[in-house]
Amino acid sequence: MNNTIQVCTRCVMDTTDPEIIFDDEGVCNYCRHLEKVMPAYNFTPEQAEANILRITKEIKNNKKGQYDSIIGLSGGVDSSYTAYLAHKFGLNPLCVHFDNGWNSQTAVSNIKKIVDKCGFDLETYVINWPEFRDLQRSFFKAGVVDIEMLTDHAIMATMFKIRKKHNIRYVLSGVNIRTENGMPNAWLWRKQDLVNIKDIQRKFGTLPIKEFPTMSSVRFKLIKMLNTGGTYVELLNMINYNKNEAMETLKKEFGWEYYGGKHYESVFTKFYQAFILPYKFKVDKRKVHLSSLIRNGEITREQAMEQLAQPLYDPAELKKDKQYVLKKLGFTEQEFDKMMTEPPKSHLDFKSDEWLVLLWLKIMRKKKMS
């Protein structure tokens, strides 16, 4: 068996992604794909401002109730900068924060600073902790890679419910192609797969799913097809978004604080990405995040390599975070360490609606061809 790791000659993605493909120049498929699609997202300063003015005018003109839009606010860079743009261009969004019990103090502080200065209303959805804790424990016991699927699924369902309650059409999303491209399919699972969540909980859980926010793939697809899920607006894809410049603006405007890594505004996400993924699944998500920044011209490949050479965790900080996470989830160190050394399982080792999604895609492809 060849254990040699091949690294892209342009970014830092490598063969730890089992599906990566390199061309004759040693450039990976993620870099080549972005090369093709990126021209549609490059704007002059005048074009970027015109894009934002056009969509914000549309949002204001279609306001039906108290709020003209809704935004999920985590305290991280992307959602915070989206809120900044909404304020700058005169929108009045309802800010929604999903509290899954793992917020860092930095995230909480960032959210407060933003809503206070912008004068935005904030609605916080607090998860039923015993139920969510039991679900997270089940995913650990199952040995699947995407433990964060639970939070992402619940956020999606919660945002839909709150948007519908307030009759808000426009959803301001922090999704962006510049700093969120090139995530390998093997490193996550489809967030809408409620069948997968339910089967894992049925096999390993001790509590029934009662209050955990859910939305099936069928419902999600129908909502999308019937256009009843609101209009998603990706403001960051309408400008030449630069993460480092965005952070400087947020610090200046709000006294916003950085939390040390992509999605590290959550204590659990930090521990998951910096310890669980690399230790059990041999996945270092820094490669994806740094590669995105390379492609966006924010750092060089050499700078990314230097960052990857640094330890994922300070030993003292790892010890503290591990103790905190284990205590909160109710695992002994022996139980946890045993799970970390057991072979990973595929999400497809459990029931899934993947077949339904593949069938849907097949029908959609035939429809386009006809």
UniProtKB/TrEMBL annotation:
Ranges for domain NAD/GMP synthase: 62-128
InterPro entries per the UniProt record, alphabetical: N-acetyl_sugar_amidoTrfase, NAD/GMP_synthase, Rossmann-like_a/b/a_fold
Pfam family, one: NAD_synthase
NCBIfam families attached to this UniProt entry: WbuX
Identification of the protein by name: LPS biosynthesis protein WbpG
GO biological process: purine nucleotide metabolic process
Organism: Niabella soli DSM 19437
Domain of life, per lineage: Bacteria
